[in-house]
Amino acid sequence: MISPEASTLITLIFYALASIVGLAGMIMRSPLWRRLGCWLAMAGFICQTLMLAMGFHKALPGGLSLGAYLQMLAWFVLLCGLAVWFKLRQEAALLFAAPLGLMLFAMSAPYLSALVQVPPSLKAPFYALHIGALFLSLGLLALAFAAGALFLFLEGRIKSKQSMKGFWQDMPALSMLDKINAFTTLTAFPLYTLGIVAGLIWAKPVFGATVTGDPKEVISIVVWLLFAVLFHNRLANGWKGRKPARLAIFIFLLCLFSIIVVNTFMDTHHAFIRR
């Protein structure tokens, strides 16, 4: 039977190869190499899925490992990249997801002893729903961030009349990047809402109140409000182009701030604690 360490190494190798081959395919303008990069990313995703199914991400005594959270987030990012690849037939989303997944997976190693304390009453399938919905929305938001950033960068090059020959010709069209941004944000908002509602409902029996003023709760509600603005304007007002791209980037960066700064340095129920 394959060991957790070997499975982790194999997953890392697949994600690294997918990132290298995919980038090489984009630089050399080779459809074959780009497609190979996508299939390598899928192979890494399957390997990590098997690792999850075999129980290699069990909770440590006292809580869940921050390293496991980062690896789970990598899995969700790749899942979303695959969904966009199959749904919109766009390789770019998966080729961006692979290096992001690689970075998250590599970053997880030093934090395998950093715990997130989980109250006993939350150790239930409903807790998995809370975490799963939020992580899936963050994976989608990561792709919205990438699509939005690339949209703004390419639009800037076009407006400044810089050369768009060679490598740049194979970049997705601005309309497709906007479509990816729309698809991911419109799908992510209901999932984020589900995750937030689940957390607020179960906070009462655990912490004594639905809203406790916890820093993580406050910033999560702020993110939800900004997300709601983006979702509403996409649907009701037909937002396209720069505005939704900028707002998606800002929301994702705020989520990163929440995960890295709030969870690590602030007094919160979601704090990462060293064993």
Structure description:
By secondary structure, this protein is mainly alpha-helical. The chain is built from 8 helices and 3 strands. It has helices spanning 4-27, 31-53, 66-88, 91-108, 125-159, 174-207, 215-236, 242-265; strands spanning 64-65, 114-116, 272-274. It is globular. The model has no long low-confidence stretch (mean pLDDT 78).
Largest β-sheet summary: 3 strands, antiparallel
Order of helices and strands: HHEHHEHHHHE
C-alpha Rg (nearest Å): 19 Å
Shape: globular
- The count of DSSP E runs of length 2 or more, i.e. the number of strands, is 3
Average pLDDT taken over every residue: 78
Order of strands, widest sheet: 1-2-3
User: Approximately how much helix is present in the residues?
Assistant: over 70%
- Strand proportion: under 5%
Ends apart, CA distance between termini: 29 Å
Give the helix tally.
8
> Helix/strand-derived class?
mainly alpha
**Which regions contain 5 or more consecutive residues with pLDDT less than 50?**
none
Structure in a nutshell:
By secondary structure, the chain is an all-alpha fold.
Q: Which short descriptors sum up this protein?
A:
globular, 275 residues
Present the secondary structure layout:
Layout: H1 4-27, H2 31-53, E1 64-65, H3 66-88, H4 91-108, E2 114-116, H5 125-159, H6 174-207, H7 215-236, H8 242-265, E3 272-274
Antiparallel strand pairs: 1-2, 2-3
